[in-house]
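During the first year of the project, the team set up a workflow for recording each protein of interest as an amino acid sequence followed immediately by a discrete structure-token representation. This format lets reviewers and collaborators read both layers of information side by side without switching files. As required by the reporting guidelines, we include two representative entries from the current panel. The first entry is reproduced here exactly as it appears in our internal archive.
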Amino acid sequence: MLLQQIINGLTLGATYALIALGYTMVYGIIQLINFAHGDIYMIGAFIGVAAVAIFHQNFFLTLATAMLACVILGVTIERVAYRPLRRAPRLNLLITTIGVSIFLETFMTVLKGPQPTGFPTVLKNVTLRVGELEFSSIQLVILLVSLVLMVGLQIIIKYTKIGKAMRAASEDYDTASLMGININRVISFTFAIGSALAAAGGVLVGIYFNSVSPYMGVTAGLKAFVAAVLGGIGNIPGAMLGGLLLGLAEVFGVAAGFSTYKDAIAFTLLIIILLVRPTGLLGRPIQRKV
């Protein structure tokens, strides 16, 4: 029973981690909480539905199509809605992210209606057994795909030129610009990567729960934000850890009989962690000159 719940929790937590990475990367560079990020996850899920239902794509093509489409969407939103306000008061930019979020939700509601849409079958769901442990082939795919994407992100951040530029910009935005780093390019790339990961999460969740809806990004986005803060906002390994811990906490809470309070578990956990460690599990205090 314990191992079964751990598998379920890691499966759910992996999807939270994919979304949380987008929050933490954007915040790490421009100190912006992009509340529209959860809705990019939702758009990715709907694009996955269209890719299977209309174009009859297989799983990997569906995943790639959703990720590519959301890369374009994320970069477009950053360029059109956020970049002109980058030097404006931070509250203006924050309100803009909420406006973009409402726009995307309303657009999909008008386009598809408010009712949930089933995700067409793209993966055969087979029950796998290892001893007394049972898990589905879809859970295995979610864990493997999430692992590959997270490892790939770490490789990009640590060993590529654009990754080094991202790390430099997160340390000191203005100094990095003075040293010749193209900040606009770095920020656009950050939005692109974050949007791609969110789209992957949307497709995986749509397949797992066999349902997508225009408002699926609201709760998932808030929980992913909690995961990012839990691990230490701005810290990439922290976002991964926070997502996995949040998934485990939610699944074990439901298994313990608190299914009514499933959504409250995330925020209760956040409050407890912030009371004990305000910077998050892997975050570090930031010293600012006054």
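The second entry, processed by the same pipeline in the following quarter, appears below.
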Amino acid sequence: MTSIDLNADLGEGMGTDDALLQIVSSASIACGGHAGDAASIRRILEICKASGVRAGAHPGYVDPKRFGRFRIVMPLEQLLGQIREQLLLARHIGDDVGVALSYVKLHGALANQTAEELAFAVGIFASIQAMDADMAVMALDNSQQVRAAKAVGLPLIREAYADRAYTADGLLVSRKEEGAVMHDAAAVIARCLRLAEAGEIVAIDGTVLKSSARSICLHGDTPGAVELARSVRLALEDAGIEIAPTVPETDVSVRI
């Protein structure tokens, strides 16, 4: 049976966490950078443990006022220190709860920057690899994140977005541009089915992109997010597609 992972970014104060945790198979947990704190991390990890949802860390720029959606210029070591602090907090709480963090997924501007800039992504992922060589990276498929994860030898989970528009080169359309977020439920469901069944995503200009992504991000911060996520899951299951965490790739061969 064909299977695909559904993930959501949680602990961001949107009020949708409990409902989404009944729908998704992986939870990317904000860990104090753009959002989240020790209490929210613990609560979500406890629900993950009870419901069998895979848990991951979701660090970003430490910029909660702007929700981590703007790039910040700073020395690389300072940024790496911020990421390490977030991961250590989440891992410490995970150890206490009895839930291992399986992957790291970068948030917002930090995710977009690593998707575009290979050297920057390698620096970030190398720091994560030094902390835990078995930690997988959930990376935007066909982006520099994938090449960087392979370059440093991190297990890889390829991700696509249910409701974000894509450029012709496989990156996400900037939220500053019209049409960056898809709001039509039927179109989002069709996108997810086509990805799961045919490995294709249609870009905003009509270009058909090939994708090996086996994890789909369902956002929790848009109107009707829970209802849309539930509809996506039901449509996938009705098509005979199992919802389950994707096993990370461990083939690290890559040419830079």
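For the second entry, the following points were noted during internal review. The radius of gyration is 17 Å. Helices lie at 17-20, 38-51, 76-97, 108-116, 118-131, 144-152, 185-198, 225-238. Both points are flagged for discussion at the upcoming steering committee meeting.
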